[in-house]
Amino acid sequence: MAGIGKTAPDFEDLLPAMAEKLGGEGLMRELCNGFKLLMDKDKGVITVESLKRNAAMLGLQDLRDDELVSMVREGDLDGDGALNEMEFCVLMFRLSPGLMEESQLLLEEILEDELKTAAF
């Protein structure tokens, strides 16, 4: 997807750094804040129209309408044509392979620690 490929490096570079600096809870708080900036205030979800209206805040003002539609479609897990807060957060993680890799490593560490301390 041309539009997402165009913007993904920014997210790939920033989300892992934000996660490291803010911690998990801080990162989720910032993602929630980003969602609120982009959402349609009346509907409580991010629509193509609200994304288009607010895209300049993320430096995405040059994206074409079809690219914005593709971004929403990629994150729309329930097929309603919009992104709720959970879908937005999942999409941001999916657009950041570095963050996904860090999450996997953290999960593996936690599981190893749990197995070491479990009494089997």
From TrEMBL:
InterPro entries linked: EF-hand-dom_pair, EF_Hand_1_Ca_BS, EF_hand_dom, KIC/PBP1/KRP1
Transmembrane segments: none
Protein name from the UniProt record: Calcium-binding protein PBP1-like
Gene expressing this chain: LOC111282146
Keyword line: Calcium
Pfam families: EF-hand_8
PROSITE patterns reported for this sequence: EF_HAND_1, EF_HAND_2
Gene3D superfamilies, alphabetized: EF-hand
Start and end residues of each EF-hand domain: 63-98
GO molecular function, one term: calcium ion binding
